[in-house]
TrEMBL record:
It is found in: Cytoplasm. Its main location: cytoplasm. Gene3D superfamilies: 3.40.50.2300, Homeodomain-like. It comes from the Bacteria. The lineage of its organism: Bacteria, Bacillati, Bacillota, Clostridia, Lachnospirales. Residues 437-536 form the HTH araC/xylS-type domain. Keywords: Cytoplasm, DNA-binding, Phosphoprotein, Transcription, Transcription regulation, Two-component regulatory system. The keyword DNA-binding applies. Residues 3-120 form the Response regulatory domain. This is Stage 0 sporulation protein A homolog.
Amino acid sequence: MYRILLVDDEILVRDAIKENIDWKSMDCQLVGDCENGKQAADFVKSHPVDIVLTDILMPYMDGMELSHFLHDNYPEIVIVIFSGFGEFEYAKKAIQYNVSEYMLKPVTAMELREVIGKMKEKVDLQRKEKKKIESLTKTSQDYHKNALVIRSKAIESLVSCTRDVQESLEELSGMGINLEAASYRVALFDMDLFSDIHQIDMEKRQESALMAFVLFNVADEIVTDRNAGIAYQEGNNRVCILFMGNRSREFSREIQEICQEIQKKVKEVIGIEASAGIGGWVRNPGDTIQSHNQAEKAIELRYLLGGNLLIDTETLNPERSISLQQPLSDMVDGIKKGNEAEMNQALSVMKSEIKKARVDKSQACVCLQMILRHAGSCWEALSSENEDLFHKREILMGRVTEQKTFKEAFKMAEDYVHEVFERCSSLNSSSGQKQAVLAMEYIRQHYNEPELGLNDICSYLNIGTSYFSTIFKEATGGTFLEFLSKTRMEKAKELLEQTALKNYEIAEKVGFSDPHYFGISFKKMTGKTPTEYAREKRSL
């Protein structure tokens, strides 16, 4: 039976709903009808209610305030809101109060029966979840009264080396547990839903300990049947297995099969995926902490690879260094040339390389920050109007480190790269503007070559000198030689300010084969000789 409360300040509406619905045939009971939210709030304090049907506009306490009250005090009650046409968008704001359905007035009996049917299903689901939690709570309470807790704590102390190894072995021996074996390995199970890769509310956190008990029961049953080791709980949420036996290819394969069987069974029983990491072999019980730490590190790969993992550290390829220099360069080229395919290919390569290198979260975030910097520099090089993109990049530099998974963080960086691409493409919409931008970039890359000339640029762009001179002046306001000279002088200023190089050395580095001509050109542009400029800047 489903208990329904009707709330509406119009008595004719309440009477019409009461009389036109066959409540009994729907296995429902209309337990009350109230004319405002205040009456309804008082009613639910003393009467059990499953579903509330409420209008929005009412005196004393309206439907939104009632929904707020029910959300905070009776979250199990399912709420349906009636609203007039002008109130409909307002009603949608009630989503924050877990309102399940919105119905536009006038409501027909058929529409109401259909909605009530849906709400009954939601009530059933909530009742089922509540029953499951109550069952798990009782089982968990029983569990914490028996010796399994003591056993888990003793094995955890042994593996984590928080007690003397011999004391732990003697305690376990007193329980009839003999840990003598040729070799040992630790496997660690962690439920993905309750891990750091997901945002979970307080109710879920409380549920996690109960689900971990189910995971423990499954693992204990399977490992015991296989006579392969012993299961124990680690803290409230994790389950570990201490495998014991001969170090052989056959037993290693059996360990993987056992872990897969546990993952499959847990998924069937409680519908939750668990990731598992298997540490390497050790010969002594006192060294099992090494295997445990390897298993824990393997679990951390969830950040890169997602959940439902089974990672055997014995079969992993050795970690390798990662270099993103080439794909970063390709990404920048793709952005500047307007080649989206080249840019996307570079992003795909970097994503793959980061995953293959199995870097930890901090290293992965450094790589993502490099992608953001390089993308942002493309826009800065092409336009002085970069405040919004620069500000967004600075925000993203921090936000990528806050994401729970690499997938989410990479998507943020990828979206920023695409935004930069769109901006640059818009800026380069005309072919002349685009060629002028490419020319400026070419000059910035080759300014240190003494023989760099107009013909080199035109050959690179595959256009004539006259056409190039026209589009370049339109884009920059100056000639090729003026831009080249300005670029060289700016680089010379940097070297004079930041290094102790001789003037002839600086001349050579910025593309002047004749130091004397460099000095004349520098004074013409700055009003000072290179020596005077350096002395002035270095004395500041």
